[in-house]
Structures are given as structure tokens and as C-alpha cells.
């Protein structure tokens, strides 16, 4: 028995040793210099010397505690700042009628589909004994229960607005006196032996920590129709920031982050006014956002920044894997920019041509009950004026938007 245990232990040790060697080989292959540097340059060129400090891959671990700090700060901010601000702007929690408990309908809703097919409705009618209208109304109410409230959307938008605005101001302050802000070719002057500045260090770590926190909280955040695109965007952004840090593409990275932060806070502020029902403020800010987004994401980003990361470097050295990888990530972001630009232009054109309210095309609209509830609503309307979902609609002199 002891010999058998000894043999098992030896096999486990041997297996662990093989796995460790495989990990070492994989790490050595992944970090080999010919993948990430131009010919003749390597990691030795980025060793600190003579008071000059360079970016290190191990520095990226700092972003993890920063991400968790952001998650904590966000909770405090939403409770102590965003909620009172929502009350000040007139954002009210939507009163929703809950779907009455029903085992059969709940099981279908959770395990099959949120929108039952006509044939499924017939089957559910037989199981529950409910009339068709009552089954349809149950599913409408149940879907509404799962949709986030206006207050939740407002809190999320106000948090992102605050960060994006502060990040843009900080990024602009860090770059305002840098030559590569005005002459993009300066991004590659002396590459990759570029000294790391304290402002660049914190700009990178804070941005990386913030996007990591968004990835951690994505399960609890408001889910929109472009949920998958948002995940791709967050992952591509984290990879881009991390990779540009490791191989000292820091000057290009700071410019890319500044361009992205330049319009995002306008979008989040438009959402805030939208949720508060301030229609005119929302529409005008959205038009400003659309203009800045199109200029920065469809012109400055591809024709200035990507041009200087794709065309100019090959005049200095031969292309290498890192060059293609970096520009590939930029192209992924550009594809997402085009996807979102189409949605933004559609909303802007609809508003400018017909003066309609600006609605987020990525959000699901809340459904209203029909049939019997409309009859009940007609009775209530005579007494209390207009009703919505069985509850009086409060008019604060602003047109409400979804």
C-alpha cells in the first residue's frame, strides 16, 4: 500500500514538473524578442539605467487593485452622489405591476423563452387555465420586471460621465505639453527606448483599472442590444492598453485613450438628461456628441492615428508580429466605431428631420399592458387623467423619454 502511494506521489510530482516546464517554454516563446520588437532591439533596451525608467509588464498587476477600488468607489458614488442628483433632476423609480406567481409560466419564462410563440401560448393556456390575454399580460409584466429601472440607468450613466470627463481632463493635462500631441510622428521618435513619465504611468493604470472594473461589473450592469459588442470593446481595449504598455507603445496609447475619452462624457450626460426627461437638453447634447464622435472616431482615429501606427513605422524598421498585432487591435476598435456610428447617425438624422426625441436604439422599451387594463385605465382617466401601467403619469413639464 505504501509503495502504491509512493508511486502515485511520484507521478503527481512528475506531472507537475512537466506542466511547469511547459508553462516556462510557453512563456519563453510568447515573450521572445523577435515577436515584439524590431530587429536588433529587445527587452534589454528597456532595462532601467542612468535614472531613466521604462514600462514593465509586471506593472500591469497594479491595475487589478485599482479595478476593485473603482468598484467600491462606484457603489459609494451611486448612493451618495448619483441618487440625490437623480432626485434633483426629477428621475423617479418606475412603478411596475408584478406578474403574479405562477409555476408553469415562470418555468417557461426562465427555461424556454421570454416571448412565447403562439403554439406555446395555447399549451400554457391549457396548463394554467388562464385566457390568452391574461397569459400575454403575465409575460409582458414579467419582462418588465427584468428590465432595469430609470434610476439604475441614471446611476450608471452618471458614474461613467464622471470618470470619462475627469479622464479626458487628466489626459489632456498630461499631453498638452508633449510634442507627439501635435506631431504624430513624434510617437515613434527613439522607439522603443522611450522614458516612462509619472503622468503616463498613472494615466495608463487608471484607464486599465477602469476598463477592467467595467468587465468585472458587466453581469450586473444594464444590458443593451450591443452587449456582445461591448464585451469585445472592453476586451480589445484591455488588450490594447496592456500590450502597448509592455512593448512601450505608450505615446500612441495615450493618444488613443485621449481620443476615446473626448466624446464619451457627452454621450453619458445625454443619457442622464434623457432619463430625467429633459428632452431638449438631451437632444442638443446628443448632437454635439454625434459630431465629436464622428470627427474623432471616423476621421482622427483611422486617418491620423492608425495611419501613423500603420504607415510611418515601416519607414523606420521592418514589420514584425507586434506591429501587426497592435494595428489589428486598432482595426477591431475601428470596426466597432463604424458599427456604433451607424446607430448614432440614424438617431441624429431621425431627430434632425422629424424633431423626434432621441432614444437609445440599443435599449429595450418597456411594454404596456393592454386589453382589460386599457379598459380599467379608461375608467381611471376620467377620475385622475392619463394613466400608464395602471398608475397616474406625472407631468414635470418635460417630455419623458425611454
TrEMBL record:
InterPro entries: HD (IPR001356), Homeodomain-like_sf (IPR009057), Lag1/Lac1-like (IPR016439), TLC-dom (IPR006634)
SMART domains membership: TLC
Keyword Lipid metabolism in annotation: yes
Secretion signal span: none
Membrane topology listed for this record: Multi-pass membrane protein
TM stretches of this protein: 161-181, 201-219, 231-250, 284-312, 324-349
Classification via Pfam families: Homeodomain, TRAM_LAG1_CLN8
Disordered as annotated region, ranges: 357-402
Catalysed reactions, semicolon-separated: sphinganine + octadecanoyl-CoA = N-(octadecanoyl)-sphinganine + CoA + H(+)
The keyword Chaperone is annotated on this UniProt entry: no
Keywords noted in UniProt: DNA-binding, Endoplasmic reticulum, Homeobox, Lipid biosynthesis, Lipid metabolism, Membrane, Nucleus, Transferase, Transmembrane, Transmembrane helix
DNA-binding region, residue intervals: 107-150
Record protein name field: Ceramide synthase 2b
Organism of derivation: Pleuronectes platessa (European plaice)
